[in-house]
């Protein structure tokens, strides 16, 4: 059994003034490069990067980082990315539909989580495995990302993921294991330049 990371990096980042996938951290590492590395270092067997806004520019960053030559990293473009996170999530999970049966779960993360490291990824992955798993990181009791979705839930998530709600409507009312990670990170995403 294995888990594939799904990195949602398609948004236009209107409040940020541009796509967050193009941002760089204090060490000049592109957010998208760092996020892919953290998913792989944390235990994901592979990563599917979902692009949308400025997809060609983000591909250049992936090329420069060497991810384009790595068989563990694939890219899919969410044609309806402007609709919101739901479209990105649908595109990412749809891309995994033809994955080998050994891929039993997807770990969904966001490109704009600067302090979520491979230690958080590792802890959430340790919460369970298999086609029925539902788990997500929490930070001081508040649910956040990444979110672990067993393969048995993918079609249900795709059916309801709309707008900026992602998997929220699907997860509501289901038993989702919260994995406390507040000792490792804040889990906050960045929305505005002042938050960098």
Mean pLDDT: 91
Give me the strand/helix succession. Answer: EHEHEHEHEEHHE
What strand line-up does the widest sheet have?
A: 3-2-1-4-6-5-7
Q: What is the highest CATH level, the class?
A: Alpha Beta
CATH architecture heading: Alpha-Beta Complex
Q: In the CATH hierarchy, what is the superfamily?
A: Spore Coat Polysaccharide Biosynthesis Protein SpsA, Chain A
Give your account of this protein's structure.
The protein is α/β, with parallel strands linked by helices and 196 residues long. It has one domain (2-185): Alpha-Beta Complex (Spore Coat Polysaccharide Biosynthesis Protein SpsA, Chain A), CATH 3.90.550. 27% of the residues lie in helices and 23% in strands. The chain is built from six helices and seven strands; from the N terminus they run βαβαβαβαββααβ. It has a seven-stranded mixed sheet with strand order 3-2-1-4-6-5-7, with helices on both faces. Strand 2, helix 2 (55-65) and strand 3 (73-77) form a beta-alpha-beta unit. Helix 1 (31-41) packs across helix 4 and helix 3 (85-96) runs antiparallel to helix 5. The model has no long low-confidence stretch (mean pLDDT 91).
Task: Summarize the helices and strands and which ones pair or pack.
Blueprint: E1 2-9, H1 31-41, E2 46-51, H2 55-65, E3 73-77, H3 85-96, E4 103-110, H4 118-125, E5 134-139, E6 142-150, H5 154-160, H6 168-171, E7 177-180
Parallel strand pairs: 1-2, 1-4, 2-3, 5-7
Antiparallel strand pairs: 4-6, 5-6
């Amino acid at each position: 059994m294995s888990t594939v990371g799904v990195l949602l990096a398609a948004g236009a980042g209107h409040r940020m003034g541009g796509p967050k996938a193009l941002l760089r951290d204090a060490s000049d590492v592109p957010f998208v490069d760092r996020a892919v590395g953290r998913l792989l270092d944390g235990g994901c067997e592979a990563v599917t990067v979902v692009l949308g806004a400025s997809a060609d520019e983000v591909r250049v960053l992936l090329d420069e980082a060497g991810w384009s030559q790595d068989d563990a990293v694939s890219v899919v473009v969410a044609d309806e990315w402007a609709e919101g996170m739901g479209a990105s999530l649908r595109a990412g999970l749809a891309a995994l539909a033809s994955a080998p049966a050994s891929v039993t779960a997807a770990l969904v993360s966001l490109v704009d989580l600067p302090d979520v490291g491979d230690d958080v990824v590792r802890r959430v992955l340790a919460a369970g495995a298999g086609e029925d798993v539902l788990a997500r990181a929490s930070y001081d009791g508040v649910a956040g990302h990444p979110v672990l979705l067993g393969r048995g839930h993918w079609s249900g998530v795709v059916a309801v993921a709309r707008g900026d709600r992602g998997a929220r409507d699907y997860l509501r009312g289901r038993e989702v294991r919260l994995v406390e990670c507040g000792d490792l990170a804040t889990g906050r995403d960045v929305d505005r330049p002042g938050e960098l």
